[in-house]
């Protein structure tokens, strides 16, 4: 089924190119890609992301689609502080303690989602593509378990930085923690998302 969606989305992007050329001459393929992916993932919302985060993500997903036929969809991006507080409180209740909750989500003051520099993306194949190609867009990752989360602070990463290997979760979900800046060692705690299947996210 994933392959069918990939084919349909790519066909849509091709069909959108002539119209995109009229409204955005010189950027037609980029714009057509965003339109096609918006049709594939109608619930995604890129509003509230910082300009750098938005540019990095849309440029990466454009290349992924046109060059490799890979889809990159957004599950969760910017969140307001109240939403993040509710997510953290719910995780505290689920995990049983504040300390354990920090492994999967963060309070608003610490969350990069609230800052507009973090994204939870899907699907697994997109995460694999980012592992290989994300560095060209300033997207660097550490690994967790269920879905994909991009971190894009403003600093430019060194050209030689490399993203770590991804591990497949038994449910085909994982966390790809990505940041833009000097390569950092994986931490025991970090913002992550909940299962893609129910669109519950954290951190």
What's this model, at a glance?
This protein is of the alpha+beta class and 203 residues long.
Keywords:
alpha+beta, 203 residues, single chain, Muramoyl-pentapeptide Carboxypeptidase, domain 2, disordered C terminus
Oligomer: single chain
Strand order of the largest sheet: 1-2-4-5-3
N- and C-termini, Cα separation: 30 Å
In the CATH scheme, what's the topology name of the largest domain? Muramoyl-pentapeptide Carboxypeptidase, domain 2
Query: Helix/strand-derived class?
Result: alpha+beta
Q: What is the total domain count?
A: 2
Roughly what percent helix? 40-55%
Q: What is the CATH first-level class name of the largest domain?
A: Alpha Beta
Radius of gyration: 17 Å
Structure commentary:
The protein is an alpha+beta fold and 203 residues long. The chain folds into 2 domains: 1-40; 48-203, Muramoyl-pentapeptide Carboxypeptidase, domain 2, CATH 3.30.1380. Helices cover 42% and strands 10% of the residues. It is built from 7 helices and 5 strands. The protein has helices at 2-23, 28-40, 51-68, 81-95, 98-101, 112-115, 124-133; strands at 73-76, 118-122, 140-143, 148-151, 176-179. A 5-stranded mixed beta sheet has the order 1-2-4-5-3. Helix 1 (2-23) crosses helix 2 and helix 2 (28-40) crosses helix 3 (51-68). The longest helix is centred in the N-terminal third of the chain and has 22 residues, at 2-23. It is elongated and about 55 Å long. The two termini are 30 Å apart.
């Amino acid at each position: 089924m994933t392959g069918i969606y990939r084919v349909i989305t790519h066909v849509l992007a091709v069909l959108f190119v002539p119209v995109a050329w009229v409204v955005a001459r010189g950027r037609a393929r980029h714009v057509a890609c965003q339109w096609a992916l918006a049709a594939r993932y109608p619930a995604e919302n890129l509003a509230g992301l910082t300009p750098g985060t938005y540019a990095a993500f849309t440029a990466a997903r454009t290349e992924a689609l046109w060059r490799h036929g890979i889809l990159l969809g957004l599950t969760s991006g910017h969140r307001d502080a109240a939403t993040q507080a509710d997510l953290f409180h719910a995780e505290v209740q689920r995990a049983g303690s504040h300390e354990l909750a920090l492994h999967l989500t963060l309070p608003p003051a610490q969350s990069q989602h609230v800052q507009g520099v973090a994204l939870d993306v899907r699907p697994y194949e997109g995460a694999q593509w980012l592992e290989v190609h994300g560095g060209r867009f300033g997207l660097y990752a550490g690994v967790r378990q269920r879905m994909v989360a991009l971190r894009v602070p403003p600093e430019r990463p060194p050209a030689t930085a490399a993203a770590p290997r991804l591990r497949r979760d038994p449910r085909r979900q994982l966390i790809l923690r990505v940041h833009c800046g000097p390569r950092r060692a994986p931490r025991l705690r970090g913002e992550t998302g909940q299962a893609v299947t129910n669109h519950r996210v954290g951190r």
